């Protein structure tokens, strides 16, 4: 396929590559697009994945052909064009059609199929009132729909799907070491950016309309904030808060967002962050400098770190790798790339990480286990299996560590469980203490 040279061509090429070999969408965006073009391309790709089944129904209706018989480039160009026509009201219909057709030509779509694309998109404009409505589609694979319906009931399953089909707002945690929530909100307002306090986490600000680059926000370079959903902020609160000089381990640090939050909750703590991926480690180091987070980074696995026989920790935060089913609104490719057969593998890996982390916990210390999954195999079942193997570990009620507004996010066992239908990411956390 020719190298895409426009945002719509990049979006079509990315969608085609994703369906051929599912992977995180950001891994596909190596094309040299401007920041503005990249945002449009990402908007189209994520939007198509959020509304996939609805768009496929439109394609079948307009083309009168089964999906599997359509050329892959034509299929994804139709999806990209229809998404613009039905969901991106700021784009004129003529631009949505003409630019999408031109993008398909750039990617080598032959003339007779380009005609089909052009005719189908223009037909959608004429027939818009007679075509199916988007709200009639769940846009999730059957295995997730069936699981969520069985566990949460049909009404809640539909609310979960509806929440995932919308674009979640940008949520940030204010770096209270450098600015208060009110001060950064005032700074945003002075730059014409609307922000409101979060509904649950005390240091959260939500930017409901912001569509620009994160690095373009006022105070980014100065480290006044970092992007973090309220659910993750609440999970960090479950570790506690202290001015004591204690040792804390972030066992799966990622890009360092939770490490930065923990550093603000424990300003005098000695923090070690473990992250095996070299690229994530590089981004972690950048965030550490920007946010003034005095954490030491160990770039290897948790098992490798444990083999160094470090001193024991008073607190350990383990945000374990998981299926990500709680964030498939923010990352819509997850719903289409995961399979139910993967859950046992995640369970085993999570349990192994928990077992390893427990060996690094001091007596009386707290081990916080978290995932961004809604699946019990990765949450309650992992905790149950872990406690059965570790009689020295005691589960503790999460309620005392949550703001009153977040008290609804508690299970009968006292674990933390947030759902996308509650206007934040799906997240699970359990607080465990060593006797």
Can you name the CATH architecture of the largest domain?
Answer: 3-Layer(aba) Sandwich
Number of strands: 12
* Morphology call: globular
Output the helix-strand order: HHHHHHHHEHEEEHEHEHEHEHHEHEEE
Low-confidence runs of at least 5 consecutive residues: none
For CATH, the homologous superfamily of the largest domain is named as: Vaccinia Virus protein VP39
Q: Briefly, what CATH class of the largest domain? A: Alpha Beta
Structure, described:
This protein has 3 domains: 7-136, Orthogonal Bundle (N-utilizing Substance Protein B Homolog, Chain A); 170-227, 2-Layer Sandwich (Alpha-Beta Plaits), CATH 3.30.70; 230-434, Rossmann fold, CATH 3.40.50.150. Helix content is 43%, strand content 14%. It has helices at 7-20, 35-50, 52-63, 72-87, 93-106, 111-126, 142-152, 154-165, 181-190, 230-237, 257-265, 278-291, 302-307, 333-337, 343-358, 380-389, and strands at 170-174, 196-197, 204-207, 225-227, 247-250, 270-274, 295-298, 313-319, 361-371, 393-396, 416-418, 427-434. Strands 5, 6, 7, 8, 9, 10, 11 and 12 form an 8-stranded mixed sheet that branches. It starts with 6 loop residues before the first helix and ends with a strand.
Top keywords for this entry?
single chain; alpha/beta; N-utilizing Substance Protein B Homolog, Chain A; Rossmann fold; eight-stranded mixed β-sheet; four-stranded antiparallel β-sheet; globular
């Amino acid at each position: 396929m020719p190298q895409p040279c426009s945002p719509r061509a990049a979006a079509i090429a990315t969608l085609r590559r994703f369906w051929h070999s599912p992977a995180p969408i950001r891994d596909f965006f190596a094309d040299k697009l401007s920041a503005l073009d990249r945002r449009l391309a990402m908007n189209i790709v994520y939007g198509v994945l959020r509304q996939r089944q609805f768009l496929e129904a439109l394609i079948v209706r307009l083309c009168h052909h089964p999906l599997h018989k359509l050329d892959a480039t034509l299929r994804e160009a139709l999806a990209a064009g229809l998404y613009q026509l039905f969901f991106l009201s700021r784009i004129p219909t003529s631009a949505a059609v003409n630019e999408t057709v031109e993008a398909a030509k750039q990617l080598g779509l032959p003339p007779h199929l380009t005609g089909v694309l052009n005719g189908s998109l223009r037909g959608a404009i004429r027939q818009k009132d007679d075509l199916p409505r988007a709200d009639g589609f769940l846009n999730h694979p059957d295995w997730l729909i069936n699981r969520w319906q069985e566990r949460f009931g049909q009404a809640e399953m539909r609310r979960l799907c509806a929440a995932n089909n919308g674009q979640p707002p940008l949520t940030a945690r204010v770096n209270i070491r450098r600015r208060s929530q009110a001060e950064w909100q005032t700074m945003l307002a002075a730059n014409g950016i609307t922000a409101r306090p979060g509904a649950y986490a005390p240091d959260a600000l939500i930017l409901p309309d912001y569509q620009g680059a994160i690095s373009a926000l006022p105070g980014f370079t100065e480290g006044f904030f970092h992007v973090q959903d309220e659910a993750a902020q609440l999970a960090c609160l479950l570790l506690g808060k202290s001015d004591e000089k204690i040792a804390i381990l972030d066992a799966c640090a990622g890009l360092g967002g939770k490490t930065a939050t923990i550093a603000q909750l424990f300003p005098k703590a000695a923090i070690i962050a473990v992250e095996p991926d070299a690229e994530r480690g590089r981004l972690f180091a950048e965030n550490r400098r920007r946010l003034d987070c005095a954490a030491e980074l160990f770039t290897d696995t948790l098992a490798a770190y444990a083999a160094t026989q470090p001193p024991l920790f008073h607190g350990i935060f383990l945000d374990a790798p998981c299926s990500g089913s709680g964030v498939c609104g923010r990352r819509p490719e997850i719903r289409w790339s995961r399979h139910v057969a993967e859950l046992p593998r995640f369970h085993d890996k999570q349990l192994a990480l928990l077992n390893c982390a427990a060996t690094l916990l001091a007596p009386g210390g707290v081990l916080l286990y978290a995932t961004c999954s809604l699946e019990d195999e990765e949450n309650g079942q992992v905790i149950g299996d872990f406690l059965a193997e570790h009689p020295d570990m005691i589960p503790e009620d999460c309620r005392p560590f949550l703001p009153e507004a977040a008290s609804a996010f508690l299970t009968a066992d006292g674990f933390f469980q947030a759902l996308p239908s509650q206007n934040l990411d799906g997240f699970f956390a359990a607080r465990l203490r060593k006797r």
